[in-house]
Amino acid sequence: MNNQPICSHVPANDLNAAIRELAGNVTDEAKLASLGPGISYLLELPGRAPRYFSQTESAFPPAFYKLLDAITSWDELVVETQREAYQTAVALDRFEAEARYRIQVNRRGETLPVVDYRSVVRDENGQAVAIAGRLVDDSFRTVAFDALARRSWKEIATSMTRRYLHDFNNTIAGIYSLSELYAEPGSDPQSTAEAMGHIRDCSIRAQDLTKKIRHLTTLEAGQNGYFDLGTLVEEQKEYMEALLPKGAAITVELAPGQHPIQLDANQFRQVILHLTGNTADACGEDAQVKIAVSSTTLEGRACGVIEFSDNGSGFKPEDLERATTAFYSTKGSENHPGLGLSIAEKFATELGGSITLGNNPDKGAQVRIVLPLLEREAKEPAAPAADAAPAAPKKAPDAKATAPRSTPPKILIYTWEDITRHPLLIAMQNAGWDTRVHLEPGLLLLDLLQDGPQLDGVLVFKSALDEKADPLVSELGHARNCDKVALIALGESVDALSVSTKRICGLVAAGSSKPSALLNKLAAYFN
Which of 140, 263, 273, 316 sits between 20 and 30 A of 412, alpha carbons compared? Predict the structure, then answer.
């Protein structure tokens, strides 16, 4: 597909000539077909309102054409995470003739990857009046790339899993040896207590290794969630150590403050470990990795910056332009298909970010990933509308539930994972909520028994691997001092929750929802 203008100049203030040139006439159907697959379109500037599109039914689903008829700007088709990047790419001062992004194809929110070939249409005075383009379904290339990316990740995960299984075997062997040593009757009580402490520590280690192996063998994309970018990078350090040689050194530098971001943690981990795999190949036994996390402002938007550096030979000048291209590899080995950097680029661009390659001033390569951060939430939650109906509580509302709130809610929180930096919890604290976080269900139930009448309810953060959450919710369903239970699903679909859990919880929401929206729902529910 060439990038020459489909139509160039039209009479001033008249787009009909451009439309005629795009559409041809009834006897000139071959004209559009000669342009290749896809549909032609014309967007009127400055608002990019669709003025024309060729309805080739086989090119896109029928619902897509109905959506085109209803929108007022092409920007509405572009998925939200890529909309800002699209707007930048079609700005006249930095216009890009070719772009890849995802569009919505129906009102249900289904999306499709596309390639957009476009050019600026100018009138006879040289004034830009429209954008003429050709939109092509890019699903096949995307599916093929994803399949190859899965295979590349599987190879990395297999290598790391071998090391974890070796450690797991040693841990189990240690537990067995200690249990054999102190299994005989008459063992010294102090020695037995020490042995049981060692067995406990080894069991925790074995559980941690099992969790890591589960994460590594998860090839599918996960669910978008809210994270602090610095914390997320720190969590990858142990995984990186399993991929690098034993003598490697890893340094993580975090800029002060928080860097709230929404992304898929599974995909993020894969990006970091693909970069780590490249370092392991390039640097060998003396590998040194440095990851610096900071923030910056680009075009008025807060962005997080990850700078991944190593001490290898760096990029050659000819590699810098092509290294993110799929299958481009400098290693010359069939064991290295050259997908790591292209996977990282795809991840960044789909989030509306970017990736740049360079070399350190002294030695080694540097990969710089820029990702848009979440906007800071308001300090106070928006008051619920006067006519908004509160979520259905578990029990009939009483005077406490319906009275106007004069103070922020007071709730107990259960979580299996550390959520001290979760954006929702931070928003609650900023809004003055009285929250007590418990990592153990038993301690939460004790607090509930003691302070139940003074509490507004309980909030449960349910993680996908947590086996304690469901029994806790069941207990709360029978607790006399617990009128309201809300649940936030982390890493799993709300639809996957059991019927009994949904029945007990008066409010159930996905953890991937915006913190401000969740805060408003919880405020209305616990009021």
Answer: 263
